[in-house]
Amino acid sequence: MARSSTTRRLIAASSAALALCLGVTGCSRTINGTPTTNSSTSADTVAGLPASDGPSGLKPAAQDADLPVEGGTSGKTDTLATNAVADVQQYWRSAYPETFGDGKFRPIERLVSYDSTSGGRRVCGQDTAGLANAFYCPAEDTIAWDRGELLPGLRNTFGAMAPVTVLAHEFGHAVQHRAGLVDERTPTLVSEQQADCFTGAFFRHAAEGSAEHIRVSTGSGLNKVLGVLGYIRDEPGRTGFSDARAHGSAFDRVSAFQYGFSDGPKRCAEMTEESVTERTTQFRFWKQAQETDLPVDEQSIAQVERSLREVFGDTGVVPPELTTEQRPCHDEKSTEPASYCATSNTISLNLSALRDIAAPPDSGDRGTGYGDFAAYAQLASRYALAVQEAAGLEVTGDAAGLRTACLVGAWSGLIVEDPIGRRNPVGRLRIAPGDLDEGIASLLSDDGLIAADARGEQVPAGFARVEAFRIGFQQGMTPCSSEYDA
Ligand SMILES: [Zn+2]
Fold first, then answer.
1. 144 φ, ψ to 5°?
2. Based on the domain organization, do 264 and 311 belong to the same domain?
3. At which of 253, 281, 309 does a domain end?
4. Residues 6+ apart with CB under 8 A from 337
5. How does this protein sit in the membrane (predicted)?
């Protein structure tokens, strides 16, 4: 997060202020040109499927797939990988002709398992020694994975769904090539977005229980899948992991996955360079250098408070009082690191808890931080409750949690750094793409408030939390009250 210091932005901010309107439902501060999914959202469903925290992983009763894998072993990693590839391939056998109206799906020519920590094998002209990757090689129609380091490492960090996600993504690249959707001139971002979208389409099939070996719950299971997307850094034909930006931010990647999950593979096939660049325009122009961290102190809190007042000023909200004192709120349970009390219209902040969240994720110290935006988004979420209270909406329950995520997304969308001037940002506080990714990480965590009601109860499915945030980010405040009125 950073403060803007250019006069151009101040001028832009004052012209935005002319477009004020009253009431959270009447607000028409929308952002043009940003498509969203067709699905309607609610707290107890995930794109129309029941939200559940059931088991995810290999189905215990399923027979292992009988697919030839060069170099494959009978170990845990290869067993999971082979079963996953078999399920993804089975999915495309029916989805491919339905999507492309084009005959039969040709199975992958060659599957290769290798161990990057031991002797090299040649795949696609590359020596696999030290190649901690998984990739699709178009020239040899081959999907290869590293069973030595990459897949077990991801599995240890994110669970069994992580290798499945990686392989479904690589299969997405194979589908692109079969359907002629990409060639060597296609920008990496576009082919990556489409592969993530195809990944989402497969996971819907698995979440519906239709895959033979793999099952995934729409709650905790998909949370893990969404969490791992930002870590996939294949680059077909090149060695190792490469520039994260070329693959899109975590926010872009989760969005693409959700399009495929909600709308199916046709939606992915329709992705073009034009539509992807339009949706992700803001991100392409951002530079890492624009990111600075706001400390957690009184001065920064005052800046964030000003930004919230500016963005939500036209909703009819009576700005809540912010305090660092812990004040009791009748019988209401307080929440950390910020607590909203409707009766006194107060937000109490716990600075030390906010600082823990604001710590960079790689600081090692506590290892629990998400970054400055994640911390201030917790505060914004409590402010969003005051906005709902003023509009006569419930501040407890799952619908309140989703509205909260949507309103925090709307705030984010109105303060986002936008060098090409499509968004007309409000006020002087600015966020950058890394900030949005902090928000996504916090949304997918077990203890965040961005998608939580006044009691701190989070909406159960991370998928629904992120989707609500994204809808607010892309479309502004209007859908926050109209979509989530349950
Ligand atoms: Zn890829």
1. -125, 150
2. no
3. 281
4. 349, 350, 353, 354, 356, 357, 375, 378, 449
5. Single-pass membrane protein
Cα(305) to centroid(ligand 1), Å: 40
- Asked whether residue 368 is domain-assigned, the answer is yes
Q: Does residue 36 lie within any of the structural domains?
A: no
Rounded Cα gap, residues 356 and 200, in angstroms: 33
Same domain flag for 170 and 245: yes
Same domain, 340 and 215: no
Measured between its terminal Cα atoms, the distance across the chain in Å is 33
Q: Is 346 contained in some domain?
A: yes
Q: Nearest 5°: phi and psi at 17?
A: -65, -20
pLDDT of 109: 97
- The contacts of residue 277 (CB under 8 Å, 6+ apart) are 189, 190, 284
What's the maximum distance between 2 C-alpha atoms anywhere in the chain?
69
Please give the average per-residue pLDDT across 46-67, as a whole number. 92
Count of CB atoms situated within 10 Å of the CB of 50 = 13
Range of the domain at 376: 2-30+290-482
Structure tokens at 298: 């009184």
**Which residues, by Cβ under 5 Å, contact ligand 1, an ion?**
192, 195, 234
Question: What are the pLDDT digits (tens) for 146-169?
Answer: 999 999 999 998 999 999 999 999
From the CA of 195, how far away is ligand 1's center (Å)? 6
Residue finishing a domain among 231, 251, 281: 281
What is the predicted pLDDT for the residue at 119? 78
CA of 196 to the centre of ligand 1 (A): 8
How close is the Cα of 7 to the center of ligand 1, in Å? 40
CA of 187 to the centre of ligand 1 (A): 12
Give the tens place of pLDDT for each residue, 253-264. Answer: 999 999 999 999
CA of 19 to the centre of ligand 1 (A): 41
**Span from the CA of 381 to the centroid of ligand 1 (angstroms):** 34
How far is ligand 1, taken at its centre, from the CA of residue 437, in Å? 19
CA of 235 to the centre of ligand 1 (A): 6
- Local structure of residue 50 (DSSP, 8 states): E
What are the tens digits of pLDDT across the range 298-357?
A: 999 999 999 999 999 999 999 999 999 988 888 788 999 999 999 999 999 999 999 999
The model's pLDDT over 82-139, given as tens digits with 9 standing for 90+, comes to: 999 999 999 999 999 999 997 789 999 999 999 999 978 899 998 999 999 999 999 9
- What is the total residue count of the chain? 486
Whole-angstrom distance, CA of residue 197 vs CA of residue 62: 27
Angle between helices 298-312 and 398-414 (to 10 degrees): 100
Say yes or no: 181 and 269 in one domain: yes
Mean pLDDT of 451-456: 96
